[in-house]
Amino acid sequence: MSAEPRPSAAAAHSAWMVGASAGAIDPDPERLWTLAPPRFLRRVPGRESFEHELDGVRVIVKRFRGGEPRDWWSERARGLALRSPARAEAENLLALRALGCAVPEPLWWAEERSARVNPWRGRGRSLLVQRYVPHERTLADRGAAAFAPALGAFVGKLHARGWCHRDLYLEHFLVAQNALVLIDLGRARHARELARRWIVKDLAALAMSCPPEAPRRARLAALASWRRAQPDARRLRGAALRALVASIERKARRLAAHAPKYAYDRAAQRPLGWSEPS
User: Fold this and answer.
1) Are 47 and 64 in contact, with CB atoms under 8 Å apart?
2) How far is the C-alpha of 120 from the C-alpha of 66, rounded, in Å?
3) CATH classification code of 16-132
4) What is the pLDDT of residues 4-37, one digit of tens each?
């Protein structure tokens, strides 16, 4: 997939700019934007996702309108060009796959040519199409304790390579053929040196999303695996290690006390606490 947008045959005379990998499914953003799927995986204001099949390939389609104000300000503050949510996630996936991380394969992304992404007014449509990852479950469903060492190692390697996820809950880990695949990387961030607060937030999100009955030894196994993958963390001992654990626990409590902005009910096919616009 090209890092720079290029028109496809299907989109050359449309309102869309498309970034696609060589030989990928021929993009048709407008058709996917107007498609009414039978079911949504998630549908909340500004974004929705669903399974689909394109040219015999099973895919996940993500549709965005506008973007997150906090991400918009973050990219502006770092002097980065404004990107649509679809493009940002596609580029994150490509970068992580190049590092050998187990994440989904992006097939193409598209964003409107004419509208800047405006997170306050819901402007700027964008689309991401990624290959579906066959999986048995997520770690939030069951079996997180058995994967504790693998989970810690996965996150440790992610952090060691300068990446933080920023929404690192168990539900974002798929169990595929007894291995882990990390999904929903639209808000992931890369830095030469990750700020401690981002590392703490990732680890706190994992701790908070663990079921209450998860044994303490599984939590310790995950932390030990994370430390082994982190050159700096391996040197933490005594008071310094206890201070890190205390920071993670405090952040986990704050996350637990913070109600999610939108909780999606797949059975009812609607977000809780949101009235669909007329």
Assistant:
1) yes
2) 7
3) 3.30.200
4) 555 454 444 478 989 976 555 678 899 999 999 9
Domain ranges of the chain: 16-132, 137-257
Q: Torsion-angle region of residue 111: left (phi > 0), alpha (psi -120 to 50) or beta?
A: beta
Beta strands in the chain (DSSP E): 16-20, 42-44, 47-54, 57-65, 106-112, 125-131, 137-138, 163-164, 173-176, 179-182, 189-190, 263-265, 270-272
- For the purposes of burial, counting CB atoms within 10 Å of the CB of 77, is it exposed (0-12), middle (13-18) or buried (19 or more)? exposed
* Strand residues in 85-148 grouped as ranges (E): 106-112, 125-131, 137-138
The answer to whether residues 146 and 219 touch, using CB atoms and an 8 Å cutoff, is: no
- For residue 9, what are its two tokens? 């045959």
- Section 117-146 average pLDDT: 89
Superfamily the domain 137-257 falls into: Transferase(Phosphotransferase) domain 1 (1.10.510.10)
Question: Look-up: residue for tokens 């050359």?
Answer: 12
Q: Hey, how many other C-beta atoms are within 10 angstroms of the C-beta on 68?
A: 17
